[in-house]
Amino acid sequence: MGNKTDRLIALAEKHGAHNYHPLPVALSRAKGVYVWDVEGKKYFDFLSAYSAINQGHNHPNIVAAAKSQLGRVALTSRAFHNDQLGPFLELLTKTTGKERALPMNSGAEAVETAIKAMRLWGYRKKGIPDGKAEIIVCAENFHGRTTTIVGFSSDPDSSSGFGPATPGFRTIPYGNAAALERAITANTAGFLFEPVQGEAGVILPPEGWLSAVRQICSENNVLMCADEIQTGLGRTGKLFACDHEEVVPDLYILGKALSGGFIRSPRCAPATRSSACSRRAPTARPSAARRWLPRSGPPPCA
Ligand SMILES: Cc1ncc(COP(=O)(O)O)c(C=O)c1O
Question: Of the candidates 38, 43, 190, 233, which lies 20 to 30 Å from 293 by C-alpha distance?
Fold first, then answer.
């Protein structure tokens, strides 16, 4: 390590929360697949910010679009329409084959929104008694770091010290279709899973598992919710990891690469194929999840 690197690391260690333990390299420049540290050393970036940089660092088309947008308007609020949101949502829903999408600010926030949507669907459409909705998750999952999400993590590094955990989650072993079937009750609203588990060590599910999950969810009127934040948008060689078994979940949760490599975590949780609620609340800030629920009945992709 050089002097500059040492100084920068010391500053971050002194003034930042110790929630990450990065490698002892301080980056200052990037282009395509390469990054350079403050000492001028060049590296291949094999990490790609966990897939947030799938397009490569500073893709010139994305840089040009961002600069042009910043020169016109950087921020509006949801109190107004703007000339970007509609076209973005149209492209995203066409890409995912879903009817509606909801952009959020981080992957964890998108997962939280999907959880809300599944619970609400459970109460409004499946008839689960209020407060009783259950969501099934997998052991060794990683879905983010908010309080609710770490509450159903099986990794003590993520969860310990942050209790009490939010109730309403059941954990099953990853890749085990029989366990999923056994865990489903009349109060199960959804199954939340990673098509490939990332933080757990890049764990591929057994062949046929995604198809089995689709079938079990459809047969039991349970929403299948694929967290494709890391696997989506080309990371596994298909547009979505679920495509490897030609499976279409009821909800995709996307993130990382969706930012074009410019904001770490703008995410979205595209909704279902069936029509969504169209209740309007123009002056209030309605719960986002409420506005893109399927209108009725069984999981829309069943
Ligand atoms: C599968 C998965 N879900 C959710 C998240 C959380 O995303 P964020 O860090 O943007 O909150 C991550 C982040 O690595 C992830 O890999």
Answer: 233
Query: Is 250 assigned a catalytic role?
Result: no
Cα separation, 256 vs 251, whole angstroms? 17
* 139/281 same-domain check: yes
Q: Which of 43, 72, 101 delimits the end of a domain?
A: 72
Give the global pTM: 0.89
The whole domain housing 15 covers 3-72
Protein residues with CB under 6 Å of any ligand 1 atom: 50, 106-108, 111, 142-144, 194, 198, 227, 229-230, 255, 265
- Catalytic annotation on 142? yes
Question: CA-to-CA distance for 5 and 38, rounded, in angstroms?
Answer: 7
CA 41, CA 202: separation in Å to the nearest integer? 29
In a domain, 36, yes or no: yes
Residue whose CA lies nearest to ligand 1 atom number 3: 143
Q: Read off the CATH number of the domain in which 190 is found.
A: 3.40.640.10
In tens, the pLDDT along 38-53 reads: 999 999 999 999 989 9
> Of 142, 169, 193, 240, which residue is the catalytic one?
142
Question: Strand, coil or helix: what is 134?
Answer: strand
Which atom of ligand 1 lies closest to the CA of 265?
Answer: 10
* pLDDT band, residue 276 (cuts 50/70/90): very low
Q: Could you tell me if 27 and 105 lie in one domain?
A: no
User: Six-digit token pair at 117?
Assistant: 């949507």
The predicted pLDDT at position 262 comes to 72
- 227 in active site: yes
